[in-house]
Design a protein that fits this description.
- The protein is α+β, with helices and mostly antiparallel strands.
- The chain has 12 helices and 7 strands.
- The chain has one domain.
- α1 runs antiparallel to α2 and α7 packs antiparallel against α8.
- The radius of gyration is 20 Å and the shape is globular.
Length: about 325
Amino acid sequence: MLKVKTMPINTFGDIPDDFPTKSYLPLGPNIWEMFKDYGWEWLQYFFREFGKTIGDLAKIRLTESIYTARDIVSGKIDQNISSKILTYCFFPPTMAIRADLQQGTMKLLFGDSSDTTFLFLNDFDRDVLFALNTHIEDGYPIDYWQIISGEDDDFFDRRHMKLGYKFRDIPKRSKNLDQAANRLIDVLKDARNERTPQWTNSAYYIIITWCSAGLNMVLENSNIETIGCMFDGIASKLFYGLKDFWFNFFPIPTFLGSMQRVDRKKFLKMFSGLTSESHLYLQPIESEAHPLINKIVPECFEFMKKRWDKGIILP
């Protein structure tokens, strides 16, 4: 009788207990399934290599969103057509949004004038991998910049004025993500006020996220699933009983703070209403990113094909 060989399934127990985000990985259906398929050593490689380039992928999305917004404001894209265009939020650039809803949603969340920084942490050593910043006025981006570890080390070595900690070391020397976010904002504000003093009094928001959470979001097939992942990251501490957030908004926008008191289903309805009037959007991986992904982790596309074969998760 022919014996069929089966692939061993990797389990939660295969993850080292000292791994900072061990308890959070099952929240991410993509990261968790890839771990079960490919194992712990592969996941280490995935985080390390993809973590080096995730900032470039985020920048591709943000740049496209900014150019689209400028074309709408200038009249190059007709207002009637903008309701049929999907781009990504100015903040965070992992969440899809209809172009004509971008301005109103950003104003609702972050006010008339604000700086917003999207920052990634390495799950293995708590290093800051990159930060992507956008300055928003009246719901539209006016300025943006990016810093990447290994390329902009002068900034990563910049110290907190009171504590003396280097920017890159602040998460390691903080007891939780909220404290780390508060301290990182201090350094980012100092740099903002030196570079653009006209915005000294503008609000400042940061999303500080573990690489595992960000990568899981990037691999989601639809806008609805991305919003669900966003809820789970915040709910990890508020509702799910884990010690800290998988990622957090800091300070929490007033509107988003009120949404924390609703369940997952209502959160999905409210946020999908704000970003797409509750329509389902199937999210692509940008063509510019394909060569990079195929070179580093071709398993991503193999995994995504399996997900598509299973069918689309409806709202």
